[in-house]
Amino acid sequence: MRKRILISDIAKNLGVSVTTVSFILNGKAKEKRISEGLTKRVLDYVKKVGYKPNQLAQSLRTGQSKILGLIVEDISNPFFSNVAKYIERIAYDNGYHIIYCSMDNDETKAKELIQLFYDRQVDGYIITPPEGLEDTLSNLIKNNVPLVLFDRYIPSLETHYVVLDNFNGAFDATKHLLENPNNKRVGFVSLYSNQTQMRDRLEGYMKAIDDYQYQAFIKKIKIDEDEELAIEQLHEFISSNNLDAVLFATNYLAIKGLMAVKKYNMDLPHMVAFDDHTLFSLYEPGISVVTQDTSAIANELIHTLLNEIKGKNKELQQIVIPSELLVRGSSAIAESLEQTS
User: Span of the secretion signal (predicted)?
Assistant: First the structure.
């Protein structure tokens, strides 16, 4: 490994002072009346030798690490990975780097990651909070640490957030399933969770069911449920209730539903899932989804956080992104009616 090049090395080789090199590298050449010729000579030499500033020293000097912490439920989930991709791109264009981790809806792991990032002196956080994180996030806010929540928020905390319109997303998806005259028994599969996004999706489902004056069928699965047990429970829920259609509150619950269909050789009920997945467009018939505009979410998240870091947010930014229903073969009304005619 090559020896690290220091500012003192550059100054010695060019025959100038360390202070002069430092001013030039920090963009203060004009302010300090350093000639354009000398500035160019220093910058050309820096480029030639591949000098990289010591980020720790730079952060101590400026009070900023230029690093942002992104803590999500599961970075391998296509929804979170797509949001992370856009966030990383926009952050980089603004001179920041992202460190991101998954906390798997685990309160203890989330607290450890927040402390780890705090010790690394990240300039701000973007977090999808699990339950039980109120006190930890409250302490960040009290210490004036820039913070934006996304995907879900904590009602008791006054903080910035960016979320999907989960209520209307679930309402529109359920209404779409109920508009098919063959769908009299429409179920909803969710998690045992008090998180706002799950609560709003349940309420949206119930509003549509009540509008049609149909019976509700609701199944909740433990977040950490064993996969085989979850598949067995979904088979029992769908078959014992003779469900015509199902709305799944997450894409991974819908995938477990498809596993149940395959394992037990069931007829695929008409179905819609929250959040798209690569599998859903490859499956036959394609799985209808309530989609989220990941680029719009990422854009709102990163700009809200950067504005908070710069002190530009004059009021709380609590942003709700509209959802969109993408209809595929699993719930297409025309196809289902043709099958019964």
Answer: none
Is there a single domain that holds both residue 96 and residue 75? yes
pLDDT along the chain (341 residues), means of 10: 73 90 83 90 87 57 76 93 95 92 94 92 94 94 94 95 97 97 97 96 98 97 95 97 98 97 95 96 96 95 95 93 97 58 37
**Length, in residues, of the chain:** 341
CATH number reported for the structural domain that contains residue 110 in this entry: 3.40.50.2300
Angle between helices 18-25 and 7-14 (to 10 degrees): 110
pTM for the structure as a whole: 0.80
Contact 137, 127 (CB under 8 A): yes
Same domain flag for 147 and 236: no
Identify whether residues 276 and 192 lie together within a single domain.
yes
The H-assigned helical ranges of the chain are: 7-14, 18-25, 36-49, 55-62, 78-93, 107-119, 134-142, 166-178, 196-212, 227-240, 251-263, 278-282, 294-309, 333-340
Which structural domain range is residue 17 located in?
7-53
